């Protein structure tokens, strides 16, 4: 298999994202992927099964953490891919398939109120084996609901 072009790689990332059953379960849809800035976004709509507080109709904290980890991991995967440079595509794919969360911190800043939520991921640092990301979750009013930082091993 040959190295994919940037547009082919973008489609591979989107296809990988869409194959994850849990992403479909919470309705997480991939948004923009900027290969140069190493930023990524995804969004989802509030649904009854995502509510953690039924009286106040706010998101469950686990849904928030899941969305942040998902976007952080995908952002880390893109950064790791670029960091590996010119090594063989098959070796890159093998290393990327092992990417996993080592550590993650979530700060819940406001209750998860809203109808539409968007996660943004960016890179803080990319090393030879670890990637550190920063993630944010905002609601449809533009309020910052939660932030996260995470470390991923590849």
From TrEMBL:
Residue stretches making up the Thioesterase domain: 58-145
Record-level Gene Ontology MF annotations: fatty acyl-CoA hydrolase activity
Pfam families linked to this entry: 4HBT
Record keywords, A-Z: Hydrolase
PANTHER family given in the database record: ACYL-COENZYME A THIOESTERASE 13, THIOESTERASE SUPERFAMILY MEMBER-RELATED
Family to which this protein belongs: Belongs to the thioesterase PaaI family.
Cross-referenced NCBIfam families: PRK11688.1, unchar_dom_1
Protein name: Uncharacterized domain 1-containing protein
Organism: Microbulbifer marinus
Top-level taxonomy: Bacteria, Pseudomonadati, Pseudomonadota, Gammaproteobacteria, Cellvibrionales
